[in-house]
Design a protein that fits this description.
Elements lengths: L1 H15 L3 H21 L2 H5 L2 E3 L5 E3 L29 E2 L5 E4 L2 E4 L16 H10 L17 H4 L4 H13 L22
Antiparallel strand pairs: 1-2, 3-4, 4-5
Helix pairs in contact: 2-6, 4-6
């Protein structure tokens, strides 16, 4: 009798709470929408290290999805002399680092790792980063560098960006300390 009463009380509570029964489904749908947007938007093109697929095609490494530029992989090199060959930018074999007139940029670790990824970011800082093109959405933060097309992504709705955030928070955290950007003319290596 006591079990029946507890079960009945839980059913009444769930049905009386607005949206309670749909909250898990709503969260799941938001994560799925975010996954769709991340995949459709090509985030894996730069933010996921690659492995060689059939016919030599570079494919996202399923074990390191969205973990950014591998911390021990050397950066590509670009010099102003490359302009004479109509080379605006160079990249590495994984497309996770790019060199050009802006220096060298490295794709960020978008996993929820608290030390090396976006685990300490808030949803607001993620949205502000996309909207402003500033790292961590900080008004005085460093610019998000090419080839990150933040200026195209910023046109997404808040709901879309929140869905992307929900998806990024749902993936496994991967410890990978991406190097800091290298300013033009600076020697390759970790700079702040």
């Amino acid at each position: 009798m006591k079990k029946v009463f507890v079960s009945l009380a839980l059913c009444v509570l769930v049905s009386a709470s607005p949206g309670c029964g749909n909250q898990a489904a709503g969260s799941r749908n938001q994560v799925e929408r975010g996954k769709y947007l991340v995949n459709f938007g090509g985030c894996h093109d730069c933010h996921s290290p690659k492995v060689q697929g059939p016919g030599g095609i570079p494919l996202p490494d399923e074990k390191r999805l969205l973990s950014g530029h591998p911390e021990n992989l050397p950066p590509p090199v670009w010099t102003p002399g490359d302009k004479k060959y109509d080379t605006f930018a160079t990249t590495n074999s994984m497309f996770t680092a790019w060199a050009g007139p802006w220096g060298v940029s490295f794709a960020a670790n978008l996993t929820p790792d608290k030390e090396t990824g976006i685990g300490e970011w808030s949803e607001d800082s993620f949205i502000n980063a996309i909207r402003t093109g500033k790292h961590q959405g900080q008004p005085n933060g460093r610019d998000i560098l090419p080839p990150m097309p933040w200026f195209n992504v910023k046109t997404l709705t808040d709901d879309d960006l929140k869905a992307m955030w929900a998806y990024l928070r749902s993936i496994p955290p991967i410890k990978n300390q991406v190097p800091f950007p290298i300013p033009p003319g600076a020697p390759a290596g970790r700079t702040s």
